[in-house]
Every structure is written in structure tokens, then in C-alpha cells.
Specification:
heterodimer, A: Rossmann fold, six-stranded mixed β-sheet, B: 397 residues, alpha+beta, eleven-stranded mixed β-sheet, 14 helices, 54% helix, 15% strand
């Protein structure tokens, strides 16, 4: 598989300071290339979540530049940033954030709500996305009728229903047991195989080791950001987890 | 060559669906806060509806009774004394060309009692009047029991009682005798209600000849009733004083009994302002309830807001979502309130035998009021929701 190494997301000398003199990021340079499977690891308080907000354009840096697909986000209005997110980003969070009492199909279809797609097309593509995460037989189920792993796969389907180039996953297996976690990782691996760029934020070394590249954060700085493993994610999964 | 980044538009159907989804998730809270609006709207619709029904009832009555009846009564002389109508007055009125029917009554100075044992001062508010034979036809009245006076009974000690008079005397049948002016009179008839001539309802009526011969009546009429065609009412009104009393037309006063009824119909809406104000206060309280519910809803749904922002919702779309939710909430209350108000109007009107009327402008006003309330109540919570930063919203646990 050929992967053009143009930067999908580029962070240059990014700092983020929160009120009360909290320096969450102290000058970070990072390029996320198209087609990458990247882990951002570090202990809690290292700035992982802030990194996610920067890459995901959920927040703006205090200093430094963030570019997504060639757009300098400092130059974009809130409306344009929202459009950028709906087109380029899919998010998966530790909590699933599914609407209770709403079917899996409609939860996933909401992933396209802000893209200007009409409802029939949204639902059709939602069914396809659920099929992709192995839940094609659970379209009508409500979140309360699904297991934790299934709920997270619904959330993954919602994140990728619009085929965004970049999938950002924040501790995607944090609320799951290891079996369900392996299912979710298998889904992510499948998405990566089909060309989606994936960045996983985690403090779990095992999941980090499963990714092609690891970026280690400590106290708001990148301490180690090299390519590390030549094993693919699929082989690693086959190797089993303890 | 930068691509244009324009957010996708939500269709009106999507806006409604997203707003409704927020309500569906909390049905109990929705019902309670919509109830406040419903009570306010129901009060206002019922107040307007009931007074409209009452007015409609009066107007229909007026329509049925006609507005072509005029009454002529003596006014005052130049010196302030009571004037008298000439004894020829009735004959003169009947000679006016557009006049169709006319009749006269004259007050007799006596009282009517069940027996001579009842003190003379207990008149029960019933007056004794001499009546010409055309009175019943002119007033378009009806006899519910017995008969009206004819040429023969007009000379006899025979009396016909108005509806109120019969009730006050406790009489429901004819053939009994009553005590009038020192002798017994036989009740030969009882009249039905006469909305245009309530004074006749309270009278005991005898013939002019009998009044003069048996009770010492002076023969001067005190009221003349006259009906003409509708279009000539005004011209007849003009000529009546000169016709009735050519030498002193200024001592004659003419009135139109239906005017009183028309004034009553016009006034039927006037007492409702206070009640309308009460409804408005209820509505205001309901609006505060909706605003409160929305503020709480925004606080509880920070995560949902963060998720929607991460999916690409703009601030405007988040604002729109909460505004539409607030509008739906208060609109729901408005619809329920309008239905309740209309039902209350119908129930009350039917129980009073009125035609139920809920004016369309009242319904339109209620809809407009709920839209305004929904918007005003939703603005602040919607602004708060839109201002929420996506990271803060998602970080909430």
C-alpha cells in the first residue's frame, strides 16, 4: 500500500496555557501523515488531552500554528472550523456519548447531521458504517440493549460514517474489558487497513505498542516520537493479549 | 487553491427533529413545564371564548326580537311635573303610515295580591296596567297558559299575568282569583317571557274598559308600543312626538328597547380585562418555567453539546437546537391550552344554552403568544449552550 507522506495535520511550536498559569503544552512539533496509525502516550497530566484538542481543532493554541489539510486554523472562523471538523475528523471518546433511547442506526446517522446530507442518505450510509464495524445485525437496537464493546463500535461507526481522513480516538478502550477492547481495536485496525489515518490517545502501553508510531508526551513536551515497531497491528492482535 | 469550508445546512425537518429529540428524552419535565403555558393559554382562550359566546347569544336574541320596536312614554312638562300622553295618542300613532302594529298600556294605581289578608304595601313589585288588545301582537309575546284579553274579557274582572308577576304570586295555572283594588279578578292567562319589555313581565294586565269601570283608571296611556318596518324606524321615531302630542311634542320621550340589549352585547367583553390579565400572568409564569427547564437542560447536556460540536455543529446550529426545543416546548403548551380553553368555552356555553364561539383571532393570538414566549425563554439558554467551548463540554464527567 502506498502512503503519500504529506502532513494531514501539522503542529508547529504549539503551546497551550490555561488560566491559572497551567502550561499544558510547552512547544510541540508534530506531523501526522496520511495513512498513519499513531499513538500519543503519556501519563495523566502530560498534555495528551490537550494534544487531542489541538489535532482535532476543538481548541486553538496559545502560540504556534496548527494546520489541517493545508488550512491554518488560526485564520478560520468558528463556522469554518466546524465545517473542517465535519469533513476531516471523526472522534471516538472513552465515554461512548450515544443518545439513550435512540437506535444504533439513528445514533450513527447523526454523525452526518452537520454535513448537509439529507436524512435518507444519512441512514443508508449509517447502515453501511454499522456493517463495517460488524454490527449490521444490530441496526434497530437501542444503546441500553447493547454491550459496552458494541456501544463503542457504534460510536466508531458514527465517527467514520462520513469517511473522514482522520480518526481521533481518546482512550477508546478505557471503559471496556479486554475482550471488548480487542474487538474495538480490531475495528480500528480494519479502518486503518482501508486507508483511514488514526491517532489514538492512550496511557496504555500495550495499545501504544500496537500502533506504528508512538509519540511520548511528558510535562507538555514530546520526549520520544520515532517509528518503533515493524509488526503490523493485525499480527499483534493475532499474538494475543494477556 | 484553498477549498471553501462552509458548514452544512440543517433542513427545517432536521431542526425540528433535533429539538424534539431533546424533549422526548425527558417526558415528565416536558409535561410539567408545558402545563404552565397551557394553563395560561387555556385561561385566556376560555375568558375570550365565554364572553364571545355570551355576546353571540345576545346578538342572536336581538336578531330574533328585532330592532323595530319603539316605545313612547310621557316626559316632563316645562315646570318639571310629570307629563301625560293624550288619550288619543294610540289612535294617532296607528295612523302613521309605516307603523304596522301599535298598542298602549296605562298604569293603574292599585296593587295585586293573592288575598285581601295580605297587606296592601306588599306589592311584590308587580304593577297593575290597563292594556289595549294589540299589546300581545305588538310585543310578539306568547301566552303560555290560558288566553289573552279579548273585547269581552276586557270589560270583565279578568286579568292576564306577565311571566315574572305569575312567578312572584306563586301562580302556575289560570282560573284562580287574585285581589285587586278591593275586588276579586280571575286569572285568565299567563304570558311567556318578553325580553324587550321586562316591565310587562312584571305586570298584571286588564282591559282598558275594566280598568276605568272597576278600578277608577283615568284612561291616560303611560306607554305606547309601536312596530314599523326596519327601514322606517328612524323616520317614525322623528314624527312620533309631534303625532302623539301635537301641542307639546317636547313632553314626549321615545326610546328603543333593543338599544339596551345592544349595549349589553357591546359591554359583554368589557368585564373580561381583569381575567385576561390573570391569564397573562399565568402565561408569564409558564414562560419562566420554560426558561428554567431550558437552562437546566443545557447544564445537563454539556456532553451532548460537546459531541455535536465535534461532529461539526456550528455555534449557530447549537443555538438553533435549543431555541427550537424551547419553541416546541411552549408551542406544545399552547396547543394543549388552546384545546382546553376551547373545551371549557364549549362546556360552559352548552350548560347555559349559548352558542359556543371561540374567535379565530384568539387562537391566532394564543399561537403568536406561545411563539414569542418560546423564543424569549429560549434565547438565554441557547446562547449559553452556543458559547460553551467543545473541550469544556466534553471534559465534563
Amino acid at each position: 500500500m502506498t502512503r503519500p507522506m504529506t502532513g494531514l495535520v501539522e503542529l508547529a511550536a504549539v503551546t497551550k496555557t490555561y488560566p491559572g498559569d497551567v502550561h499544558a503544552l510547552r512547544g510541540v512539533d508534530l506531523t501526522v501523515a496520511r495513512g498513519e496509525l499513531l499513538a500519543i502516550v503519556g501519563p495523566s497530566g502530560s498534555g495528551k488531552s490537550t494534544m487531542l484538542h489541538m489535532i482535532g481543532t476543538l481548541d486553538r493554541p496559545t502560540t504556534g500554528a496548527v494546520r489541517v489539510a493545508g488550512h491554518d486554523i488560526a485564520a478560520l472562523s468558528d463556522r469554518e472550523l466546524s465545517a473542517l471538523r465535519s469533513r476531516y475528523m471523526g472522534f471516538v471518546f472513552q465515554q461512548f456519548h450515544l443518545a439513550p433511547g435512540v437506535s444504533a442506526l439513528d445514533n450513527v446517522a447523526d454523525g452526518l447531521l452537520y454535513t448537509g446530507t439529507n436524512r435518507r442518505v444519512r441512514r443508508r450510509r449509517a447502515a453501511a458504517a454499522l456493517d463495517r464495524v460488524g454490527l449490521g445485525h444490530r441496526l434497530r437496537h437501542k444503546p441500553s440493549q447493547l454491550s459496552g464493546g458494541e456501544q463503542q463500535r457504534v460510536a466508531v461507526a458514527r465517527a467514520v460514517v462520513g469517511d473522514p481522513p482522520l480518526l481521533l480516538a481518546d482512550e477508546p478502550t478505557g471503559n471496556l474489558d479486554s475482550m471488548a477492547g480487542a474487538d474495538v481495536l480490531a475495528v480500528l485496525a480494519g479502518l486503518h487497513e482501508s486507508g483511514t489515518t488514526i491517532a489514538v490517545i492512550t496511557h496504555d502501553a500495550e495499545i501504544a505498542g500496537w500502533c506504528h508510531r508512538q509519540v511520548r508526551l511528558r510535562d507538555g513536551l514530546i520526549v520520544d516520537g520515532h517509528d518503533h515497531d515493524d509488526r503490523g497491528p493485525v499480527e499483534l492482535l493475532k499474538g494475543g493479549r494477556s | 487553491m484553498r477549498e471553501r469550508l462552509a458548514p452544512g445546512r440543517l433542513s427545517p425537518g432536521d431542526v425540528l427533529r433535533v429539538g424534539a429529540a431533546g424533549l422526548r428524552a425527558r417526558p415528565a419535565r416536558v409535561i410539567l413545564s408545558a402545563l404552565g403555558i397551557a394553563i395560561g393559554i387555556a385561561t385566556m382562550i376560555a375568558v375570550i371564548g365565554i364572553s364571545s359566546s355570551s355576546r353571540e347569544q345576545l346578538l342572536r336574541q336581538l336578531d330574533k326580537l328585532g330592532t323595530n320596536l319603539l316605545t313612547v312614554t310621557p316626559g316632563r312638562t316645562m315646570f318639571g311635573d310629570d307629563a301625560k300622553l293624550p288619550t288619543t295618542a294610540l289612535a294617532m300613532v296607528q295612523r302613521i303610515r309605516p307603523v304596522r302594529t301599535a298598542a298602549a298600556t296605562g298604569s293603574v294605581e292599585t296593587s295585586v295580591r293573592r288575598t285581601n289578608h295580605i297587606p296592601e304595601t306588599n306589592t311584590g313589585g308587580i304593577s297593575v296596567q290597563a292594556a289595549s288588545s294589540g299589546l300581545l301582537a305588538t310585543l310578539e309575546g306568547a301566552v303560555v297558559k290560558g288566553t289573552w284579553l279579548n273585547d269581552a274579557t276586557a270589560r270583565q274582572p279578568a286579568v292576564v299575568l306577565g311571566a315574572a308577576a305569575a312567578e312572584r304570586l306563586g301562580l302556575a295555572r289560570t282560573g284562580v282569583q287574585v285581589w285587586m283594588g278591593g275586588r276579586w279578578f280571575t286569572v285568565i292567562g299567563i304570558l311567556g317571557p318578553m325580553p324587550l319589555a321586562p316591565e310587562i313581565e312584571r305586570s298584571a294586565l286588564i282591559g282598558f274598559p275594566a280598568a276605568e269601570e272597576l278600578l277608577g283608571f283615568d284612561g291616560y296611556p303611560t306607554t305606547i308600543y309601536e312596530r314599523s318596518s326596519d327601514e322606517s324606524v328612524e323616520s317614525v321615531r322623528e314624527v312620533l312626538p309631534r303625532t302623539v302630542n301635537p301641542s307639546n311634542p317636547e313632553e314626549v320621550s321615545v326610546s328603543r328597547p333593543s338599544d339596551a340589549l345592544a349595549a349589553k352585547a357591546a359591554a359583554a367583553g368589557a368585564f373580561t380585562n381583569l381575567l385576561l390579565g390573570l391569564g397573562a400572568v399565568a402565561l408569564l409564569v409558564g414562560g419562566v418555567g420554560v426558561a428554567n427547564t431550558m437552562v437546566i437542560s443545557v447544564l445537563e447536556r454539556r456532553k451532548e453539546i460537546g459531541l455535536r460540536r465535534s461532529l461539526g455543529a456550528t455555534r449557530g446550529q447549537v443555538r438553533l437546537q435549543f431555541l427550537s426545543e424551547s419553541l416546541l416546548l411552549s408551542g406544545l403548551g399552547g396547543v394543549v391550552g388552546a384545546v382546553l380553553g376551547a373545551l371549557a368555552t364549549a362546556g360552559y356555553a352548552v350548560s347555559r344554552d349559548w352558542p359556543p364561539v371561540v374567535p379565530p383571532w384568539a387562537i391566532g393570538g394564543a399561537v403568536a403568544a406561545t411563539l414569542v414566549i418560546g423564543t424569549v425563554a429560549g434565547i438565554y439558554p441557547a446562547m449559553r449552550a452556543a458559547r460553551l467551548s467543545p473541550t469544556v463540554a466534553l471534559a465534563t464527567t
